[in-house]
Amino acid sequence: MDIAGSISIATDFIATQESFSPTAYWDVNGYAIGYGNHYYEDGSAVQQGDTITQDDAYSLLQFYAGQNANAIAVQLTVDQNADQLAALTSIRYNCGTITTTLLNLINSGADPGTVGAQIEQTCITSGGVTDPVLIARRQLESALYQSTGVGAGTGILLAAAVGLALFIMFGKK
Predict the structure, then answer these.
(1) Nearest to 30 by CA among 18, 45, 52
(2) What percent of the chain clears pLDDT 90, i.e. is strictly above it?
(3) Does the N terminus or the C terminus of the chain have fewer Cβ atoms within 10 A?
(4) CA–CA separation, 7 vs 64, rounded Å?
(5) Dihedral angle at the C-alpha atoms of 105, 157, 136, 147, nearest 10 degrees?
């Protein structure tokens, strides 16, 4: 498994999905900063009034993408290409976990299309309500998972950026 390549792809992908904030803001369970991080690399919690540069926020995102990719890699019993591990890293970064259902499906050797379909059903609610933004993100992660490997994520990233912009502009009522 190309963990370093996966971290790079995941970091870029997550940055397109998470809004950057230079100042701490209240998220569902605490203050977050940068690209949605609740903690700094040293483990200290983000506090109200904290600020961060975009470069430092990106470095923090890379750190946590690495943490998530490595945590997933040890749970996998089948090899994944860089895009597949990047998609799983994004899910774990956003949801806090990879569901047992999804992990067992991957480890059973299921084909990418079957795994992609499960990704689209994973972690799509917020506060018990189906969230169209999470649905769109899971669809992009599913497409990334099903792509052909290293480098294929670039096209997915472009599609993600365009798709998210169109959703923001036209998808809300």
Answers:
(1) 45
(2) 80
(3) C
(4) 9
(5) -30
Residue type for position 91? I
E strands present in 35-127: 125-126
- C-alpha to C-alpha distance for 66 and 48, rounded to whole angstroms: 26
Tokens of 23: 């100042």
pLDDT digits (tens, 9 = 90+) for 62-115: 999 999 999 999 999 999 999 999 999 999 999 999 999 999 999 999 999 999
Structure tokens at 170: 């036209």
Write down the pTM of the prediction.
0.85
Amino acid at 46: V
CATH number of the structural domain 3-171: 1.10.530.40
Closest of 73, 83, 94 to residue 136, by C-alpha: 94
In the block, residue with structure tokens 């969230």: 131
